[in-house]
Structures
1.
Amino acid sequence: MDLEKYFDTVNQVELVEILSRTIKDGRVISLIEVSIIINAISVWNTVYLAEAVKRVRTSKDFKVELLHYISPLGRKHNFDL
């Protein structure tokens, strides 16, 4: 099963409406809505970056040491709050 194609068929507005009938706390619904948006952005970034890597790898000027500049995970992050 292609998960990307499956999730493209899910109507997020309808999903939130169904959840709103069961979950009465608006804060929880807001968190679900934000999660849907973040997940959509993550999927888009994954697809986009995979295509970027594929194109870079086929370039005659490809240098593997530069590949980490494409990935957002190639950078050191400081998560100490």
Note: Residues 3-74 form one domain.
2.
Amino acid sequence: MSNNLLRILENKEMSIEELEKLSGISIKTIKKIAFSKDYNYKILTVKKICDILEISFKDFFDI
């Protein structure tokens, strides 16, 4: 399942490194989520990202 993480970060003028600092999620995990179409997402990790970015799951995923 693809997602819009890179586009959302760009729109919010936030880097992956900034998201790592705010979320406590490792940069390795964030990059896997951002660049891998077959990454097995943990729902709590995605929720944490969505909360920090102030977006919905619908906005995060291409649904």
Note: The chain has one domain: 5-60.
